[in-house]
Specification:
mainly alpha, Amino acid/polyamine transporter I, 71% helix
């Protein structure tokens, strides 16, 4: 690729921002009111920036194989498989949350009350996911232009609108549900439950490592990537923080709905300004944007398992490709598993409780993968000699270690608070929540033991076959 065709600062900034920024996460962070400002800044320092820096360094200097390759080189193929498994399995839990957002938003076109109907939610989620699965089975690929169209329609324009409406609301001296001052911005450090907002914020920032795969397509990466990183981090922070505040300012926290809080806030704003006719238009925009983001994720995470499958971790059944070159058995298995995960909406007393459980579960699984990512960054910086031709974290080995240590601290805090049941959401019995949460964690992680056993068994059989061949 010539320098002319390489990504410049603006192009890379838009790419990173599009990969991370999401209007779907706003209601979950808005629940925590004025303290969300602290948590956004804190999460950016101990997670968003460290993730981008470490991922960029590993991509530029180690290999383009992603988390499986990085962890494999640092700690061996089994840790590599654990890392890529966590990366894939967290998406399995993430699908019901993003699809519930789509279902809850779409309910505004029919009856907003449907967003609190468990059977409506589960039915729409299952129909949408299996529809997208069947589309991917036929090898239908969404073009980059369509994806960009969905992002502009369903993310950029709505985000600009909600922030613009907030500014007009503040200028007009309308009543506010929260107050910003020194006593309300900082969370209580004596009560750990006040730190649960970190779970939603960290999940909103997850995925920065995916953008770093373009590091070798960047012009003058040593300067371009840090600039793009700084610009995109500021954009993501400002848009997500102001978008969350827009919801927190106008809606009482006990009325914020996690699956349709965004369109709920738009409806509140637009009704006040007698612009109700825009509500259906915005609803369609949000649905289009969300669907555009989900389509590729139905098939993309599965590809990460393909690298591990080549090392014998998975039976040949999961490697089978259909006539369109799609791993159909993995795709169908994913559909069945997602269907089971969706049942969480039926076992908790409210839609908000189900949404939060799946959000917390997704975050915990993703944070465990990031722990491996940061440890791999520290290990490989010590084991390998980076040429510095591409992106290298400033400060040499010490700089990399400090960045990784910061990321590990952020992950550790998030993992701890993720197990605490939220007090401002109707989850029913705290014991019931903990049982469901721990059961969900075990159900997602325990299967890896089978794949370890399978890989060991396959390796032994292969060795015996080779020995017999040599003997003959």
């Amino acid at each position: 690729m010539t320098t002319v065709n390489k990504l410049n600062t603006l192009a890379l900034t838009l790419l990173i921002t599009g990969a991370i920024d999401s209007i779907r996460n706003l209601p979950a962070t808005a629940l925590f009111g004025s303290t969300l400002i602290f948590f956004f800044i804190f999460a950016a320092l101990v997670f968003l920036i460290p993730t981008a820096l470490v991922s960029a360094e590993l991509t530029a200097n180690v290999d383009e194989g992603g988390i499986y390759k990085w962890a494999k080189l640092a700690f061996g193929e089994r840790i590599g498989f654990l890392a890529v498994w966590l990366q894939w399995i967290n998406n399995l839990v993430w699908f019901p949350t993003i699809l519930s957002f789509i279902a809850g938003t779409a309910a505004y076109l029919i009856d907003p009350a449907l967003a609190q109907n468990k059977y409506y939610m589960v039915s729409v989620i299952l129909c949408l996911f299996w529809l997208l699965t069947l589309v991917n089975l036929r090898g239908v690929h969404v073009s980059a232009k369509f994806t960009s169209f969905c992002a502009i329609i369903g993310l950029i324009l709505p985000m600009i609108m909600i922030i613009g409406l907030l500014l007009v609301w503040l200028i007009g001296n309308h009543p506010l549900q929260i107050q910003l001052n020194s006593s309300t911005i900082l969370p209580s450090f004596q009560h750990s439950e006040n730190w649960m907002a970190l779970t939603a914020v960290m999940l909103g920032f997850a995925g920065m490592e995916l953008a770093s795969v373009h590091i070798k397509d960047v012009a003058n990466p040593q300067k371009t990537f840090p600039r793009a990183l700084a610009f995109s981090s500021v954009i993501i922070l400002i848009t997500m923080m102001l978008g969350s505040l827009a919801i927190a300012f106008v809606l009482p926290y006990n009325q914020i709905n996690l699956v349709n809080g965004t369109i709920q806030t738009f409806a509140y704003f637009l009704s006040a300004y007698h612009l109700n006719w825009l509500i259906p238009v915005l609803t369609i925009m949000l649905v289009i944007g969300s669907l555009g983001g989900v389509i590729s994720w139905v098939i993309s995470p599965i590809k990460g398992l393909g690298h591990a499958a080549q090392d014998g971790f998975m039976p040949p059944f999961f490697e089978k490709l259909n006539k369109h070159g799609v791993p159909q058995n993995l795709l169908l298995t994913q559909g069945v598993l997602v269907s089971f995960v969706c049942m969480a909406f039926l076992f908790l007393p409210s839609i908000n409780a189900s949404y939060w459980l799946l959000t917390a579960l997704t975050t915990q699984l993703y944070m465990m993968m990031y722990v491996i990512l940061f440890l791999s960054g520290m290990r490989l910086r010590k084991k390998m000699s980076y040429s510095g031709g591409y992106f290298v974290i400033p400060g040499k080995k010490l700089g990399t270690w400090l960045v990784c240590a910061s990321g590990l601290i952020g992950c550790a805090i998030t993992l701890y608070v993720g197990f605490i049941p939220p007090s401002n959401i109707n989850i029913g019995s705290g014991l019931n929540y903990e049982i469901l949460f721990i059961t969900g964690m075990l159900a997602m992680i325990v299967p890896i033991v089978f794949f370890y056993w399978y890989q060991i068994r396959t390796s032994r059989l292969l060795m015996k076959t080779e020995i017999r061949s040599e003997t003959i």
